[in-house]
Amino acid sequence: MRNSTKTRVKLLMNEMTSSPHPFGATRQRQDAQPEPVSAPALRAEVRNLDFWYGATHTLKSVSMAVVDCKVTAVIGASGCGKSTLLRCFNRMHDLYPGNRYAGEIQLYPEDRNLIEMDPGMVRLRIGMVFQKPNPFPKSIFENVAAGLRVRGVNGKSLLYERVEQALRGAALWDEAKDRLHDSAYGLSGGQQQRLCIARALAPQPDILLLDEPTSALDPIATAKIEDLLTVLRNTVTVVIVTHNMQQAARISDFTAYMHLGKLVEYGVTEKVFTTPQSPLTNDYITGRFG
Amino acid sequence: MANSSLANAQIESARIVAANRRTDLLMASIGILVLGIATLLLTSVFVGLLASGWDRLINPDFYTHFPSRHPQQAGIISAIVGSSLVMLVTAVIAIPLGVAAGLYLEEYAPKNWLTDLIEINVSNLAGVPSIIYGLLALGLFVYAFSLGETILTAGLTLALLILPVIIVATREAVRSIPLELREAAYGLGADKWQVVRMYVLPAARPGIFTGVIVGLARAIGEAAPLITIGALTFIAFLPPLPVQATPPFVNFDWLTSPFTVMPIQLFNWVSRPQAEFHVNAAATGVVLMVMTLAMNALAIYVRLRLRRLHR
Amino acid sequence: MPSIPSSVVDADNECLIGGASEAFLCRRAFWNRVAAWLLFTAAAASVLVTLGIVYVLIRDSIPFFEQVPLSEFLTDTQWTPVFKNARFGVMTLVSATLTVAAIALVVAIPAGLGLAIFLSEYANPKLREAVKPFLELLEGVPTVVYGFFALLFLTPMLQTVIPGLSGFNLLAPGLVMGIMILPYTASVSEDAMRSVPMGLREAGYALGFSRFRVAAQVVIPAALSGITAAFILGMSRAVGETMVVAIAAGQNPNFGFDPLEGAATITAYIVQMAMGDLPHGSIAYQSVFAAGLVLFLITLLFNLIGFYLRRRFREVY
Question: How many domains does chain C have?
Answer without folding.
Answer: 2
